[in-house]
Design brief:
Length: 261
């Protein structure tokens, strides 16, 4: 009975849906995290009578056909790249992006990564790095004698050195954007890498040409809404239960058939 297989695809799809919702909820406090959603697609149909086919010698046509679907599959799990809430931290190397753009970072394998997580630190050389130690492009070095580090809306980093009365420019943090940012590949550690779907990175200066601006001593929170996720979870659970009920009903029908004498 095909109903068993069709319902099993529904249960599998909702299981995947619950996994995605679970990951969203688990990352509610992950800086710069972007939630995912599950997009579903129906499977191939078996056509028993095709709509528009001729039904008589007089040329009459079948107005509607007979098609039986094969179930459902997970078509995609796109990320929702909407802005997360901005939270003050009072830490001078924390930076939030308000608007379009990603920080560019040097990954250990030589590739360039991209992140919305602006919780930066200084390493032993004074370089500005992520919490994993990845250098933030284009490479900002903050000397040991620097004090009162300031980061402007366009990413310019300045600090007072020794007893100087005027700040010294240390560099400018760049931003990157993509034609299809939902096409970026997640690699963990709050980082993404470009793909053929995302298109190449377009680098630029914050607060110009459509790029967002930077806000020092703030971080962008995850764009996960707890109420929405719980509602989606309940809906996924009910859909799973209904597919399980279909399997139970189909099993009862097969049992009745097998008991016919």
């Amino acid at each position: 009975m095909k109903a068993l297989y069709i319902a099993s695809t529904g249960m599998s799809a909702q299981e995947r849906n619950v996994e995605i919702i679970s990951n969203n909820i688990a990352n509610m406090r992950t800086t710069g995290f972007k939630r995912q959603r599950a997009d579903f697609q129906d499977l191939l149909y078996q056509v028993y009578r095709r709509a528009g086919s001729q039904t008589s010698a007089a040329g009459t046509q079948l107005p509607t056909g007979v098609e039986i679907g094969s179930g459902v599959k997970t078509g995609a799990t796109p990320r929702v790249m909407s802005q997360g809430n901005i939270q003050p931290t009072e830490k001078e190397l924390d930076i939030a992006i308000r608007g379009e753009g990603f920080f560019s970072i040097n990954l250990p394998d030589g590739r360039t990564g991209y992140t919305r997580d602006g919780s930066f630190e200084r390493d032993s050389n004074g370089d500005l790095v992520t919490i994993e130690g990845y250098i933030v492009q284009p490479g900002i070095n903050i000397p040991a004698n620097a004090r009162a580090v300031s980061i402007s809306a366009d990413g310019t980093v300045e600090a007072f050195l020794d007893n100087e009365s005027t700040p010294t420019a240390l560099g400018q943090i760049q931003l990157s954007r993509f034609a299809n940012k939902a096409g970026l590949e997640s690699i963990g550690d709050n980082a993404y890498v470009e793909t053929a779907a995302s298109g190449p990175a377009q680098n630029g200066v914050a607060n110009q040409d459509g790029f967002g601006n930077m806000l020092q001593k703030h971080l962008e929170l995850a764009n996960v809404n707890a109420v929405t996720e719980i509602a989606d979870l309940i809906a996924a659970q009910r859909a799973y239960e209904m597919n399980a009920r279909v399997i139970s009903g189909a099993d009862q029908m097969l049992q009745a058939t097998s008991q016919i004498r």
